[in-house]
From TrEMBL:
Species: Cirrhinus mrigala
Major subcellular site: nucleus
Protein name per its UniProtKB record: Zinc finger BED domain-containing protein 1-like
Molecular function terms, GO-annotated: zinc ion binding
UniProt entry keywords in alphabetical sequence: Metal-binding, Nucleus, Zinc, Zinc-finger
Length: 283
């Protein structure tokens, strides 16, 4: 195989590993090696060391250069950043850049790194300065979107003097405040949804009822306390299969709270109210 094709296939392999979150050791798996050989017997699979030490860094530098050129053309950018903790309790900071390219929103992850020092405002400001300097966007930033924690707010406003927009966090607080007004109705919905998730018999019966009514079987969705949009998805699915739910609950004789006609109407009205917020957060 000529070196150019070998290089292209090596890069394609690394892209697959990165996109699908596969380990480098996949090249040592018997099944994958046989599959690769069948596709092209002339292709020599690189070792995991070659992939991680040579091919991956080479592709990284190539992609970084391509992205750098696109960012250079952008006249203005917006950043989003957040700090989070992994399952192994390691703290990380992520910085993403957004701008308009050919009338399309374009986003690139600039950096994701472990925070080894205390998460002080000064330290976060230094890290943000490092990232923006490395990518040459320091003089193009028009705003930075974050959550509303005091250290990141102070880093942006007091140390970097950037315009700070805790947009997503504010949306979350607004919608949560609105949902408190219909908490009694939502609690009934949660109780019913939890019942169908706990009971295999009830879940199967709900599926059968949907089929009998000529509907494609849909599973109920549970909400997550920290994510208001999960409440939206739960309520949306709940109203979509209203009739099968009512029929199934009647057949199972479950001792569960029933939604009154007014509450069913309320659920639809709430969906109409918070739908624009959901659309904004997913655009």
């Amino acid at each position: 195989m000529d070196p150019l094709r070998q290089s292209k296939l090596d890069e394609a392999l690394v892209r697959m590993i990165a996109c699908d979150f596969q380990p480098f050791s996949i090249v040592e798996d018997k099944g994958f090696r046989e599959y690769s050989h069948l596709l092209d017997p002339s292709y020599s699979l690189p070792s995991r060391k070659t992939l991680s030490k040579t091919v991956m860094p080479r592709l990284y530098e190539k992609l970084r250069g391509d992205i750098m050129e696109k960012i250079k053309i952008a006249s203005a950018v917006c950043l989003t950043t957040d700090c989070w903790t992994s399952l192994t309790t390691t703290s990380y900071m992520t910085v993403t850049c957004h701008f308009i390219e050919d009338f399309q929103m374009t986003s690139y992850l600039l950096d994701c790194f472990a925070l080894t020092d205390r998460h002080t405002a000064a330290h976060l400001a230094r890290e943000l300065t490092r990232v923006t300097n490395e990518w040459g966007v320091g003089d193009k930033i028009v705003a930075c979107v974050t959550d509303n924690t005091s250290n990141i707010v102070s880093a942006l406003k007091d140390h970097l003097h950037w315009d700070h927009i805790p947009f997503a966090h504010m949306l979350n607080l607004i919608v949560r405040a609105a949902l408190k007004e219909v908490q009694a109705m939502l609690q009934k919905v949660k109780t019913i949804v939890e019942y169908f998730h706990r009971s295999t018999v009830a879940s199967d019966k709900l599926k059968d009822t949907q089929k009998q009514m000529g509907q494609e079987p849909l599973r109920l969705k549970q909400d997550v306390a920290t994510r208001w949009n999960s409440t939206y998805y739960m309520l949306k699915r709940f109203t979509e299969i209203k009739d099968p739910i009512i029929s199934t609950l009647a057949l199972t004789n479950a001792s569960l709270p029933n939604l009154s006609p007014d509450e069913w109407e309320m659920s639809r009205e709430i969906l109409d109210i918070i739908k624009p917020f959901e659309e904004v957060t997913t655009e």
